[in-house]
Design a protein that fits this description.
This protein has 394 residues and is α/β, with parallel strands linked by helices. The chain is built from 14 helices and 12 strands. The longest helix has 25 residues. It is globular.
């Protein structure tokens, strides 16, 4: 087969087939690989892999050189095959309630650029203007790396709500302004590129698994602490979303069956006591001048006893909420990130205590609770990771 030079948006649709597609897909999913790793990943013979790499190289889609793709102990560094920029770019977009962040990477897994803008108005109530702004930001970041929309093979889009398998908001009361939208189709119409939609915490889990504190972890739980609380679960390298697509809604675990009614319609959800919105409301009783959660965190880190107590109590409550998940799936690691990530030094130990008081001892002993490495980058990079997989995560 001859690989014809096509725009990246077409290349992965009809331009690659047969053995070149198998090898290119393996490189897109795994990143730079040795030939031995390509043999293992594709099931092709070594001579076939060698011939296919040569064919892809002549088309300008792969390059080969010394690198760290092979996990070798010592001796001469292995020769590593990687996709070139001509193979295309992957884009991740994270839409939060008060921010939009975009990341762009080559299909070789090299991150090229990232940008973030803060929103003046809450994204919950302004979906179309926010999608317009996100599309504009994608264009700006593409311009920064001297690329065009035709270079993009896909966009991974994350929003702060459960997403069904049909690509709709799984609980409309959590994001009412988006209820009647199909966000992936809306965004694809703006940019002319395939869009894979997912919950932001799920993407955060993939980001930390691929590039952060969850690397190489067989059973990973990522907890996003922000205005709301969410979790993403990665099992053996694959995102687990459940039968309806809405797994991981940690913020809507009931802690108090007689507690106040949550916006999701249930009572006593953990988010009502430990989410960023709830913590800010409590802190404003003493400090009405606090503008946002970052102000609360700054005061806590500066030693304010009231703010520190709020975050400590929230950590313990989240640990209790996590105990059921820990008992059920017995994870190796819980990675904590999100807007409240700047307060993890104050929250992690109470979280561990809450977990120890509520989960099975053997499961608690086996799990490591740690802060994320990617901070507010995790969800956008998770969007990139979705595209690198080459298919929807569901």
């Amino acid at each position: 087969m001859t690989v014809v030079p096509l725009p990246a948006t077409q290349l992965w649709g009809t331009g690659l087939a047969g053995n070149p597609r198998r090898v290119a897909d393996a490189l897109r999913t795994l990143g730079p690989c040795t030939r031995a790793e390509l043999v293992a990943a594709t099931g092709l013979s070594r001579p076939t892999v060698t011939a296919t790499v040569a064919e892809l190289s002549s088309a300008g889609l792969v390059t080969e050189g010394v690198g760290n793709g092979g996990r070798l102990g010592g001796g001469r560094p292995a020769s590593v095959v990687r996709l070139t920029r001509s193979a295309g770019l992957a884009v991740g977009v994270d839409i939060g309630r008060r921010h939009v962040r975009v990341a762009i990477a080559e299909l070789s897994h090299q991150i090229l650029a990232e940008q973030e803008v803060r929103l003046v108005e809450d994204a919950d109530d302004n979906p179309k203007p926010v999608l317009d702004l996100a599309a504009d930001l994608v264009g700006r970041v593409l311009h920064e790396v001297c690329a065009a929309g035709t270079d993009v093979v896909g966009i991974g889009l994350g929003i702060p709500a459960p997403i069904t398998l049909a690509g709709r908001i799984g609980s409309p009361m959590l994001l009412p302004g988006w209820e009647h939208l199909a966000p992936a189709a809306e965004f694809a119409d703006r940019l002319g590129v395939p869009v894979l939609l997912n919950n932001d915490a799920n993407l955060g889990a993939l980001g930390e698994y691929r590039w952060g504190a969850g690397r190489g972890c067989p059973v990973l739980v990522y907890v996003k602490l922000a205005t709301g609380i969410g979790a993403g679960i990665v099992l053996d390298g694959r995102l687990f979303v459940g039968s309806a697509g809405t797994a991981g809604e940690l913020g809507h675990v009931t802690i108090d069956a007689r507690g106040p009614v949550c916006r999701c319609g249930n009572r006593g959800c953990v988010e009502l006591s430990a989410g960023g919105r709830a913590l800010l409301e409590q802190a404003r009783l003493t400090y009405p001048e606090l503008a946002d959660v970052s102000d609360l965190i700054r005061m806590a880190n500066a030693g304010d006893p009231g703010c520190r107590r709020l975050l400590s109590d929230a950590g313990a409550l989240i640990g209790i909420a996590l105990s059921g998940l820990v008992n059920l799936i017995n994870p190796d690691r819980i990675v904590v990130g999100g807007e409240l990530g700047g307060a993890t030094d104050l929250m992690l130990e109470p979280m561990r205590r809450g977990l120890a008081e509520s989960a099975m001892p053997a499961a608690v002993t086996a799990v490591q609770v740690t802060r994320g490495e990617l901070a507010d980058r995790a969800c956008a990079l998770g969007g990139v990771a979705v595209v690198l997989r080459g298919a929807p995560t569901r």
